[in-house]
Design goal:
Layout (H helix, E strand, L loop, with lengths): L5 H6 L4 H10 L11 H14 L5 H10 L10 H8 L2 H21 L14 E10 L19 E9 L4 E9 L18 E4 L6 H9 L3 E5 L7 E7 L13 H5 L8 E8 L2 E10 L4 E7 L8 H8 L3 H13 L10 H11 L1
Parallel strand pairs: 1-4, 4-5
Antiparallel strand pairs: 1-2, 2-3, 5-9, 6-7, 7-8, 8-9
Helix pairs in contact: 3-4, 6-11
């Protein structure tokens, strides 16, 4: 049986000369000494892939463990110092970007027929977790009742490739909208996103560039209803001119599904509302998908596709050690988050 060590596995994806070049470009390795880029990245992949990383010492042991010659082992302090540098985070970010490109070119999923009309179907979401409390000034947490420090990982995922198309890391308090794909890049593409990413100006720009969106609507939205249809496409004229929040507060029986046209002073689009009997509230989505092609029922089912990005985050947290790292070093935290992906 042929045994392939982690370096050989990684060499199939990355060229050693390329890694050395990128490391020097980001000033991570000015000179190639004991901690060389290929060996370091290989050991990180191996350690995170094993799912047994609880401390930086585990990464250090993994690095020394893949060395062919025990004489090339590196002491803990220089290893730690190399990972605490800002250049380490930038280097790992570049490596992940290359990995996204490599895997994106290799995988392709068969989409449902109605989605094949789009150039791309993109899923957008973020996942946050607490880190060492001493990092609160660099990575403040928006939820004050928990740890004062937290980071959020933002991802744009391609449904066709079943892989991330873009990854970003920020403080948990950073606005999620700044990590959305540029509106002009979504021409004839469909974006599915959670409520935190919704913005009227952004939706307007996507539509202006002939793109499409489907997002869970923010509870703060209060547009005016200009048209209302029930699940059987019957016009509900009594809803016209009513504010969304006023509709939600109406007493009496609730329509199981509503297909609305809504407007703000400078924008109008479509909203689909579904009455959740158990929770006794409406769930609603906002979109510019044409009613003639996508019924209200199809819109609500289509949004479930976004669960794929949740599953990927869960996989990273369960199997790749995407979690809190016990360190006070901000650049090390960021670099290790990139590495765990």
């Amino acid at each position: 049986m042929s045994i392939i060590n982690p370096i050989q596995h990684l060499t199939q994806l990355f060229d050693e000369a390329w890694l050395n070049k990128v490391a020097k470009q980001h000033k991570f390795c000015k000179r190639l000494r004991d901690i060389q880029p290929l060996a370091l990245v290989s050991s990180l992949v191996k350690a995170f892939g094993d799912g047994k990383v609880d401390a930086i010492a585990d990464l250090h042991r993994a690095f020394n463990g893949i060395q062919m010659d025990p004489a090339t082992s590196v002491a803990y302090k220089p290893f730690h110092n190399q990972l605490r540098k800002a250049e380490f985070a930038r280097f790992m970010e570049a490596v992940v970007a290359q990995a996204i490109q490599v895997f994106g070119n290799q995988l392709s999923a068969e989409l449902p027929s109605k989605l094949k009309q789009f150039n791309q179907v993109l899923l957008q979401d973020g996942s946050s977790f607490a880190i060492h409390p001493d990092l609160a000034e660099v990575f403040p947490n928006r939820f004050k009742g928990k740890s004062p420090a937290a980071v959020e990982c933002h991802m744009t995922m391609s449904l066709q490739d079943e892989q991330p198309a873009k990854l970003s890391i920020s403080a948990d308090t950073a606005s999620e909208r700044q990590f959305l794909p540029a509106a002009e890049s979504l021409s004839n593409s469909l974006l599915l996103a959670d409520a935190g990413y919704v913005g009227i100006e952004y939706m307007s720009n996507v539509q202006r560039h002939h793109g499409y969106f489907l997002m869970r609507s923010s509870k703060w939205f209060n547009p005016t209803i200009t048209r209302a249809l029930n699940s059987k496409s019957k016009e509900l004229k009594s809803y016209v001119g009513v504010k969304l929040k006023a509709l939600q507060q109406r007493r009496g029986s609730k329509a199981p599904m509503l297909d609305l046209d809504v407007k703000w002073p400078k924008y109008q689009c479509r909203m689909v509302m579904f009455w959740h009997a158990e929770e006794k509230r409406y769930l609603w989505w906002i979109t510019n998908l044409p009613r003639e092609q996508f019924s209200a029922e199809e819109v609500s089912r289509l949004y479930r596709v976004r669960w794929q990005i949740e599953l990927l985050f869960k996989e990273w947290k369960s199997y790749n050690n995407l979690k809190k790292f016990v360190t006070r070093q901000p650049h090390m935290v960021e670099g290790l988050i990139w590495a765990s992906r």
